[in-house]
Predict the 3D structure of the following.
Amino acid sequence: MNKMMTFTREQLYKEIWELNAKKVSEKYDLNYPKLLKKCKEYKIPIPTSKYWIYLERGKDVSDLIIQLPSFETEEIFLDKNIDKHIETESIEIQDIEFPIEKEEDKQILNTQQIEKELIFLGKDKINVIIDSLSKFKINDNKRLNVKVSNYKKDVILWNQKQKNSERNYYDSRYERNTMEQHKFIKEVSVEQLPRLYKLLDILVEVFEDIGETIMDDLSIKIYDDIVSFEIIESTDKVEHELTKEEAKKLVEYNDDKKKGGYAWKPNIRKYDHIHNGRFRIKTTNGKYIKDSNTKKLEEVIPDIIILIYKSYLDIKTKREEIEERNRKWEEERRQKELLKERIQAEKDKTRSLLNILDDYQIAQNIRVYVEVLSQLENNVDNELIDWMLKKADWIDPTISLEDELLGKREHEKDKEDKYKFLKGERGYW
């Protein structure tokens, strides 16, 4: 399938001013953002919003037409929109062919930088990383790693489901699409997906060779921590080209407004954000590496490895700080609980002592009372006196005589509990 089309500047200029750029991209199955970029690059003027509004109203637009300026090149090559050629019935994962590596393409591994930047990992781990990177080649002509191949299949299926689920928002039959967007897809254009797969495959290969675990969402488990990352394609902000449909809506709105009617102004964006093919890889700590004018991400894999391990260090450090705070909080809570238990135990012990002293004082009072009774000349009941002395010995904690009917007295119990026992109420024992 031919993925390129050739146009002359004159041909594109005429069709764009007749149909608009969006319609031209749809007519020839072209990539719309790239078409706009090519027009800018080859100095092909794009009609303004005013032009389309005047054209819709049937007004004279001769003053709004921008003539095609001269340019050193007349032929323009444009990519066809590959996304429309994805089969919906069956999906076959194809090889992404990379150019054969040339001798001058080989990376010179800066082992000193790796050792300096990753010193926190320890010598043995650093040696494993250096060994893995030494074996690595950017342009290996190879099939995709199985994990990334499955990922690519998920991406294609996701794009198909999104396309099939599109509905008019104002349709009363509209149902909200709750399908979560697949990781990386939002920030990478369809044209750059092959490069995305290649870059992901490189990272999977290197980290698995080092010995790390690649999770299902392509995050990387390093020891006990998981480092997530995202690959984002940058965009250029360009002025939105008004379509014929949008121009028609604006005309209708202005007409309704002039007639004094109530009209909703159409919501038309002012700018478009067009993907430009420049990648950046960003980790969870907000740090990132991006394509430069001289090197792409694929050519700075050691720097990306360092970036991810430094993100691991940040995650590990924060986790350990949280764990240490939680440990201190738990220790403080435990110490407070222990202190609370000690205080309560001391209170219970003191209360028992006071209860014992109460019994001792009661026993002494009984004996004093018996002594007084014994000195009376009349009506001395020796049997009663003997009984009272035995009860004093039962109450006295220093003797704690076991009573034939009442058993042993629990001297440490509260006065209320002891009286409850004597009253026959439950709860004493």
Observations:
- The chain is about 50% helix and 10% strand.
